Amino acid sequence: MSTIACVFAHPDDEAFGPGGTLAKLARDHEIHIICCTDGDVHNNGLKNVRDKELLASAKILGVKQVHFLKFIDGALSNALYHKLADNLKTRLDKIEPEIIITFDPNGVSGHLDHIAVTSAVNFLFPKLNYVQKIMYFCLKDAERSQISDYFVYMPPGKPKEEVDEIVEISSVWDIKVSAMQAHVSQASDCDWILSIQSKLPKEEWFLVRSKR
Question: Which Gene Ontology terms cover its molecular function (predicted)?
């Protein structure tokens, strides 16, 4: 059974993003999630709540283990770049995954934490002999067209002809939804994301970078 590490900035990225793909891969892979921040961007005392929500979501998806790096939500930047990369490498060296799943280089939504995490993964990729492939979850252009002014800048989605791999998730859609809903503190985000995704084909799209 091969091993996959899913590297994300926040609790909920695993479910709101490629949750269906994780649920399918968990059937015949050992899945680990590395969550880089505590998810408490407004310092509302949600750190423990969000940890528990991520653990509940991971259990629903069939994930073997969740690893918490505990950086401050919203604080990932160039100043922390090498510290983030060093922390990630320490965890990845213990897991030795063949595949890493993360967000695309635009961070899907343009969130700077997302971009920092993907940049750190890209920095490490040539240094990790055991990792053969990165799968970058990306936003569909049809999905992006239904989202307005979420951030000051939100990147365009990808057209189908530009993606490298499409995972059909209709068979695990209910599992993905349950994992999303496990993030109770993020219910409003969950609801509007589902209001868009439920109308689109049950697919998750990826860019792929491989050493082979």
Answer: hydrolase activity, acting on carbon-nitrogen (but not peptide) bonds, in linear amides
